[in-house]
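User: Write out your own:

AI:
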Amino acid sequence: MISISKLISRKNSSRILLCSVFVISIAGLLAACSTPSTRGTSYRSSGSAPSSYLSSIASFRSVSWQELPGWQEDDLTQAWLAWLKSCDALRKRNSEINWRQVCTQASNVSSRDGRAIRQYFEGNFQAYEVRNSATGNESGLITGYYEPVMNGSQTRTVTYSVPLYGLPTAWKTSKPNPAPTRAELMSSGVLRGSEIAWVQDPVAAAFMQIQGSGKIRLEDGRVLRLGYAGTNDQLFKSFAQWLLDRKEITRSEATMQGISAWAKRNPSRVEEMLNANPRFVFFKELPGNVSADLGPNGALGVPLTAERSIAVDLKAMPLGAPVFLNTTKPLSSQALQKLVMAQDTGKAIVGGVRADYYWGSGDSAGELAGRMKQDGKMWLLLPR
């Protein structure tokens, strides 16, 4: 993705991304075997709100598990490791929500036993329908994001001539206020010497800035992982909107794919388009012991899991929480009904019923994320 809403109003969080990428060992969290004791899964919903959690922008109503469309069909073994990653972080946090008890219970559940996992959630959690407080609407916007993967080099070559920059050394102690815009940075020479990698496509590099992190495949086979290091503190302005305002593209073309196609048709105007966004993102190289197979770190501080992690508005729901999502796949009416974990956030993710769905790394994930702008519903799962 970059969904149209993100291109028109995109986040640059410290997520990985997205995003501090864009590490945490979970070995030993699984103690296979016994089915956890439950506290009764046949309760009746009272429709009450949670006593342990309040939101300024979302309202909650307790519901039965039968009210979650697709809950029984979801393969929860695919979500389990993502939940254990949440637990790894939640155990270390102070919260009014009693995460420690349910995370301790999780250690008794086999990661391969879908039935035991379902009993664990139904026995230890209450599901709450989420609504936007201002409107009372239970539907909201679901977009997608991903971790870019590009070929590149740590030195400039004929093929790889587009730089990705680290934070200028002088800015680490004293950042200019106001800091230069993108156009000013690119023409001033202040970034010279701060290059940390070189890639081929300036538009792809800009999308990596929007995502906040990514992977660079080097010519010797190594993978360089880049994470978010900061910005020039300028407000984000969408170059997708810049193109729309000039009728260069249609609204249906205001996707990552549509913008890339426009750039190929108009190479002499690419820099003008990119400078329409004054915000500039700097990267940092992540440690070499970060597995190339792991997703980027989200705001929770744990690696994101493809198709099982989401970014949410932290005014709406707590970071790390399990959430059941009911939406559709991009440009489709095909149901996407999954248990996901609220492990990330972002500046464009605003609203009580609002999520950014992490599709994973690479081009195929980018294709899906770039087209995702769906209606959806959400249910927050909180410990009983």
The CA atoms of residues 330 and 372 lie 4 Å apart.
